[in-house]
Amino acid sequence: TKGGVSEADYVELLLQQQVSGVVFAGGLFAQADAPHEHYRLLAERRIPVVLVNAAIEGLDFPCVACDDAVAVEQSWRHLVSLGHERIGLVLGPADHIPSRRKLAAAERTAKALGSELRPEFVERSMFSLEGGQAAASRLLERGVTGIVCASDPLALGAVRAARRRGLSVPRDVSVVGYDDSAFMTCTEPPLTTVRQPIEAMGRAAVELLSTQIEGSDVPHSELLFEPELVVRGSTAQAAGA
Questions:
Q1: Could you tell me if 51 and 91 lie in one domain?
Q2: Residues 188 and 108 in one domain
Q3: Strands of 174-179's sheet in order across
Q4: Could you tell me the pTM of the whole model?
Q5: Which SS3 state, helix, strand or coil, does residue 223 take?
Q6: Residue 60 belongs to domain with CATH number
Q7: What count of other Cβ atoms lies within 10 Å of the Cβ of residue 142?
Q8: Which residues make Cβ contacts (< 8 Å) with residue 19, sequence separation at least 6?
Q9: 35 cis-preceded (ω within 30 degrees of 0)
Q10: 85 domain-assigned
Q11: Does residue 240 belong to any structural domain of this protein?
């Protein structure tokens, strides 16, 4: 955290409080190069755990996740349907598992549509507005007209990057986010984004945890939930299409 308290410290605190179970709504389990010993400690102590969103391999916990592949395919096909041919991708760090899945899905979708995702059209960043702005600026220099982002803050950074270059969103550049965070209808323009079914995922996570706490077994596998593309004002027909 910003205060310097690590995820492992929080897990130790929870163990001291003798919690009955833990739901991780995001965390180091999604980063391949991060420390994971505290997760294994929970497993050794047989503390019920549920992970929300994609995790690294080897953590034997039930997981609830939005289908990253479907999310990217929806975004990509939407931009292609609007006539965009030079589509860029702004992802999280290289060891971030959901971003890896999004990259693989973008490559598959581009190929299925008769094109390819060029390596120079992929940029990575920390998940922040400023990171999205820097990554999108590099993509815009290479001539992309559509940008698919791995989060809404990254997408807002892409919108800012376009404006700083004197470009209009969506007249000159179309931008798609991911999450459908609060207030995305209040941005200018309102953000086209992929909505995660948060309520359904949350209910499933709680049910999986409660079932374990009650002593019953649950599948230690991943439940994938279908996302929904929400089209708003940040995407439009490509210029000249």
A1: no
A2: yes
A3: 122-124, 87-91, 146-149, 174-179, 192-195, 228-230
A4: 0.93
A5: strand
A6: 3.40.50.2300
A7: 12
A8: 47
A9: no
A10: yes
A11: no
Q: Are 233 and 189 in contact (CB under 8 A)?
A: yes
pLDDT of residue 26: 84
1 lies in some domain: no
Q: What angle do the packed helices 97-112 and 68-81 form, to 10 degrees?
A: 40
The domain of 18 spans 7-66+196-226
Q: Is residue 234 part of a domain?
A: no
Instruction: List alpha helices for the chain, DSSP H.
Output: 7-16, 37-44, 68-81, 97-112, 129-141, 152-164, 198-213
Using DSSP, state whether 150 is helix, strand or coil. coil
Pick from 51, 3, 61: nearest CA to 28: 51
For position 62, what pLDDT does the model report? 94
Which pair of structure tokens corresponds to residue 136? 């999108």
Strand order in the sheet with 63-66: 22-25, 49-52, 63-66, 222-225
DSSP state at residue 139: H
User: Digits of tens for pLDDT over the chain (241 positions)?
Assistant: 556 788 999 999 999 999 999 999 988 999 999 999 999 999 999 999 999 988 888 888 999 999 999 999 999 999 999 999 999 999 999 999 999 999 999 999 999 999 999 999 999 999 999 999 999 999 999 999 999 999 999 999 999 999 999 999 999 999 999 999 888 888 899 999 999 999 999 999 999 999 999 999 998 889 999 999 999 999 999 987 6
